Amino acid sequence: MIKVSDIAKKKVVELMQDDGFNPENDFVRVGVKSGGCSGLSYDLNFDKEKAEGDQVFEDNGIKIIVDKKSFLYLVGTTLEYSGGLNGTGFVFNNPNAQRTCGCGESFSL
């Protein structure tokens, strides 16, 4: 399960609408790929369809899809949004990450 904070929900809805997606029907696709300072990096996109093998979650009114490979890395993660002085953007609070880089966009297990 992936959770979505209230602030992240507000920003996701705003960005989905700006990009022509419908937050009530379309998905936020969250994944993990190789790369980044710490070895793995997060991938966040909008999607209108789920693929075979995708895990589907809904939290705080946001529909999330995760591919089977990424699911194991993301269990228990909370998607948050930061607009502070240290940068603006989505932040992944991942209890599975043993180390994260300074920018918060990559991690290792």
* Poorly predicted regions: none
Q: How many runs of DSSP E, i.e. beta strands?
A: 9
Main sheet?
A: 6 strands, mixed
The chain-level structural class is: alpha+beta
Average predicted confidence as pLDDT: 85
First-residue to last-residue Cα separation:
18 Å
Beta percentage is 35-45%
What strand line-up does the widest sheet have? Answer: 4-5-2-3-9-8
Which outline best applies? Answer: globular
Number of helices: 2
Looking at the chains present, what oligomeric state does this protein adopt?
Answer: single chain
Radius of gyration from the CA trace? 13 Å
- Encode the helix/strand succession as letters: EHEEEEHEEEE
Give helix % range. 10-25%
Explained architecture:
The mean pLDDT is 85. The chain has two helices and nine strands. The protein has a six-stranded mixed β-sheet. The chain has helices spanning 6-18, 68-74; strands spanning 3-4, 27-34, 40-47, 55-59, 62-66, 78-84, 87-93, 99-100, 106-108. A hairpin with a 2-residue loop joins strand 4 and strand 5 (62-66). The protein is globular. The longest helix has 13 residues, at 6-18. The protein is an alpha+beta fold and 109 residues long. The chain is 18% helix and 43% strand. The two termini are 18 Å apart.
